[in-house]
Amino acid sequence: MDRLRIDKWLWAARFYKTRSLAADEIGKHRVQVNGDIAKASREVKVGDLVTLRQGSITRVVNVLGLSGLRGPAPVAQELYEETPESIAAQAAARELRRMGTEPAHSLEQGRPTKRDRRQLDDAKGSGWGTRWSASIEDDKDDDG
Fold first, then answer.
1. What per-residue string of b and e applies to 57-87 under the rule 16 or more CB within 10 Å gives b?
2. Over the chain, what HEC string results?
3. What's the CA gap between 144 and 140, in Å, rounded?
4. 60: Cβ–Cβ under 8 A, 6 or more apart, which residues?
5. Is there a contact between 4 and 66 (Cβ–Cβ < 8 Å)?
6. Can you give the pLDDT at residue 28?
7. Ranges for the RNA-binding S4 domain (predicted)?
8. pLDDT band at 55 (very low <50, low <70, confident <90, very high)
9. Between 61 and 130, whose confidence is greater?
């Protein structure tokens, strides 16, 4: 076998859990072969350069072997070799994640509930008493 579909190769090399997931990622233009956007039916051969994005990480690998069967992880790792630039980028991203997290990710909920809003207002001292509202005293222009 000298050529293999890219979705099948990505599945066999254990980049994606199923061929359907691999095909979906290819359909979202997250996989490139030799710098060109790939389709699921695109065939890869030994020596091709495959660029794929998994989450926020972009991986660049050289195809070393082809297999239509999904085997154990050590066998799958022999199908490709990651470029040194890709390994360095992954290490930098890993270090960035380790150094600090995004504050928004620590929020457990979205908007505050009514009860939370009242507690926030009470803590600030800016409850409903300091807010503007229409009242009878403001209607001095009426006929009465």
1. ebbbbebebbbeeeeeeeebeebbeeeeebe
2. CCCEEHHHHHHHCCCCCCHHHHHHHHHCCCEEECCEECCCCCEECCCCEEEEEECCEEEEEEECCCCCCCCCHHHHHHHEEECHHHHHHHHHHHHHHHHCCCHHHHCCCCCCCHHHHHHHHHHHCCCHHHCCCCCHHHCCCCCC
3. 8
4. 49, 50, 51, 82, 83, 85, 86
5. yes
6. 94
7. 4-65
8. confident
9. 61
- 100 by Cβ neighbours in 10 Å (0-12 / 13-18 / 19+) ranks as exposed
Q: With a threshold of 0.85, does the pTM exceed it?
A: no
Number of residues written out for the chain: 144
Task: Read off the tokens for 142.
Answer: 């009426």
Q: Which of 103, 21, 13 is nearest to 65 (CA)?
A: 13
pLDDT at 128 over 70: no
Q: Taking residues 56-68, what's their average pLDDT? A: 92
Q: Which two tokens stand for residue 47?
A: 């020596």
